[in-house]
Amino acid sequence: MRITRQIAVFDAADLAAESTFWAGLLGGTVLPEDDWHTVYVDGVPRLAVQLAPGHVPPQWPDGTPQQIHLDLWVDDIRAAHDEAMGLGARLLQAADVESDSGFQVYADPAGHPFCLCWE
Fold it and tell me: What is the pTM of this model?
């Protein structure tokens, strides 16, 4: 599997507050979309914030519920899917792999979520 881009994604109820915080801390800028903000640093996407209206801050160190996940952009979703599954991933949410862009949600062997994305 060839990963072309990776990005950590934070859940937040207030997209503007969260993305502005991280952009300021990292010296970057925010590209806002409806329910997703991407933080760019030196023109490169470094992290994103997705809308989670019911977001509850984690009770560290327990960390529940999910607060962050990894998005991995791949050039061949079918091959990446097969490789991830072969390594022990579980498919949590499937998508139409015939579409020009999309993502599928997986869990690693310990249950941590991640997405394989394509465009």
Answer: 0.73
